[in-house]
Amino acid sequence: MAKIGIYGSSFDPITNVHLFTASTVASRCRLEKVIFLPCSSKRKDKKMNTDDEHRWNMLTMALEEEREREIVADSFEMEQDPWKITTYETMKHFKGQYPNDDVYFIMGADLLVDIGSGKWSNGEKLVEENKFIVMARDNIDMLRTISHSPILRNNDDGTTFHLIDKGLAMEISSSYIREEFSNGGEPKYLLPNSCYYYIKEHGLYED
């Protein structure tokens, strides 16, 4: 039985921190595969700064450089109706793709807070039926977050949450890189080389 991690984000753009995070989580949690899952630009609850084609192209270019572990991209959510798909349906899809494996949703502690406070559609079913790898964010106390949320606490069987509390809370974000491009900065070494030149070529994130 293998262990598969689903890493969802906008990847707008993908950064070296995303790659570092995926590699580190795979190593610490003994994952055989990490699947990068970009969300759709059609979502009404989250504004994208580039369309799906550009984000997908940059993601696949970045992962072509990854050789040490099986880290791949999947366009599943990009292809779905954004009003009919939630993380619950996404995880159901991937568990169907890997019926003999353990499938984990990789997320930051900030999302754990959101799920625990009832902000996610199908949040209780999501926690009840799935497993999660949760990375430290913004000094959030992950154990306290779980213990103070009925949704998280009452659906935790002891193996639901794998908490990673050291070494992954890094400040460089996609939004910071977008701001650097917009302000004429030079974020070349914060994202994969191929993606940097792709952004320059297509004039992405310009003010």
UniProtKB/TrEMBL annotation:
Q: Please name the top-level EC class of this enzyme.
A: transferase
Matching entries from SUPFAM superfamilies are given as:
Nucleotidylyl transferase
Q: What is its EC number?
A: 2.7.7.18
Q: Which InterPro entries match?
A: Cyt_trans-like (IPR004821), NadD/NMNAT (IPR005248), Rossmann-like_a/b/a_fold (IPR014729)
Q: Name one GO molecular function term.
A: nucleotidyltransferase activity
Q: Hey, which family's this protein in? A: Belongs to the NadD family.
Xref: PANTHER family? NICOTINATE-NUCLEOTIDE ADENYLYLTRANSFERASE-RELATED, PHOSPHOPANTETHEINE ADENYLYLTRANSFERASE
Record protein name field: Probable nicotinate-nucleotide adenylyltransferase
Q: Which organism is it from?
A: Bacillus carboniphilus
